Amino acid sequence: MSQENVGIVRGAFDAFNRRDLASAAAVFEPDAEWVPYLAALEEEIYRGRDAIEGMWREVLKDVPDFRIDFVRVVADSPDVAVIEVEFRGMGKASGADIRTSVFQAASFRDGKVTRVQGFRSADDALEAVGLRE
After folding, report:
1. Residue ranges making up the domain that contains 88
2. Contact 54, 73 (CB under 8 A)
3. CB 98 within 8 A of CB 89
4. CB 35 within 8 A of CB 120
5. Tens-of-pLDDT digits for all 133 residues of the chain?
6. 3-state secondary structure 55-106
7. CA nearest 105: which of 4, 5, 25, 3?
8. C-alpha span between 87 and 21 (Å, rounded)
């Protein structure tokens, strides 16, 4: 992942964790797509900045202290990266402690994110974007 793309990802996660969702969404192309890991099982895709930001707001209703932490770059090319992230938080209604690692395949064009898709394993993410560890 280029240093510029690393900065984009880290900046978006930092903005999200500060609850500056508009700044986090600003790193996306206007027609970007986000396919969360669990939503992918139901073939749900969020298209556009507003839909992505809306998805985040829904997550925060149920898990107000939800965080996304950058763990590492698994593999990259100039326009695509597979990263490991950790989700953390506590369910508002259930009190359940959420702590899980997922892998995200992120695509970039001209300094903006065009697509993010979540996967349970690094191998699945690498296969989806044609990268190998």
Report:
1. 3-129
2. no
3. yes
4. no
5. 567 887 888 899 999 999 999 999 999 999 999 998 776 566 789 999 999 999 999 999 999 999 999 999 998 888 998 999 999 999 888 888 989 999 999 999 999 999 999 999 999 999 998 887 5
6. HHHHHHHHCCCCEEEEEEEEEECCCEEEEEEEEEEECCCCCCEEEEEEEEEE
7. 5
8. 16
pTM exceeds cut of 0.85: yes
Specify the number of domains making up the chain.
1
CA–CA dist 2, 125 (Å, integer): 18
CB contact at 8 A, 125 and 104 = yes
The pairing of beta strand 112-119 with beta strand 28-35 = parallel
Q: Please report, as a single letter, which amino acid is at residue 118.
A: G
We report the CATH number of the domain holding residue 119 as 3.10.450.50
